[in-house]
Amino acid sequence: MTANPPKPQAASSLRTGLRIINAVLERETSGRTGYNVARLAQEMGIDPSKASRMTQELCDREFLERREDSTLRVAAGFHELARALNHGLLRGSRPVLRRLAIEHGSGARLSVRDGVLVRLLRAEAAAATEPWPVRVGLVTPCWCTGAGRALLLDHSGEEIAELLRDYELIGVGGPNAAHSAAEVAAANDRDRPGGMIAAHGEFEHGVTEYAVPVRDGQGRIFAALAVLGRHTDLGPREEAIRADLTASASSLGRLIEDTTD
């Protein structure tokens, strides 16, 4: 027995819903101000009442959410679905993260960016405790974590400034955290030639996080791979960690290609 094909009206609504999610996501990842419903309808060339109805349904299903300023962003339901669809990457990342954790006596993490936040997809640890609490879905700021800065490594100073325009950076993070978008951009300019973010005390005192971007087949940053632990333990191993993270990120990038072919 074969499944019944979707009715034309349902299929059309599904396509429109996917287009809306894609438009909101592209706008969000570009670093520009998000769409409100009226602007979204205008940009997509669809009836405002239809856009309002469909965005509300997507919000009800937790694929989208409205910010306080009425602009739209992708929500937890979308990210959960994306994780499920990219199960090959998550499954393949586990041995990579476990090996990194054991090899360097650290925590090892795979994360993605969710607006100005970094969302943890998978983590492994060499010991029972880590310097930061760990749970899948954990969110941290992009501007004061190694993974966050790695996810912004291709952003220009202007793009970082636009992304962080409405956020107060002072009072968040560790003693070496950036206090402005310009400081975030300068830190990335410093680390970019070496291909690895070195975040010393940026989120928590005494903790170092080394991170590299994971790129897809088109060279776009898709995720960040990181190890973190006490600076006294990881600092002397920086070059070995750089080589290991770079090679591991390349292997994960190939998994992305395999799951999207």
From TrEMBL:
The keyword Nucleotidyltransferase does not apply. Residues 77-261 form the IclR-ED domain. PROSITE patterns: ICLR_ED. Pfam families: IclR_C. Keywords: Transcription, Transcription regulation. Transmembrane segments: none annotated. SUPFAM superfamilies: GAF domain-like, Winged helix' DNA-binding domain. The keyword Cell inner membrane does not apply. InterPro entries: GAF-like_dom_sf, HTH_MetabolicPath_Reg, Tscrpt_reg_IclR_C, WH-like_DNA-bd_sf, WH_DNA-bd_sf. PANTHER family: HELIX-TURN-HELIX TRANSCRIPTIONAL REGULATOR, ICLR FAMILY, HTH-TYPE TRANSCRIPTIONAL REGULATOR RV1719. This is IclR-ED domain-containing protein. It comes from Streptomyces cuspidosporus.
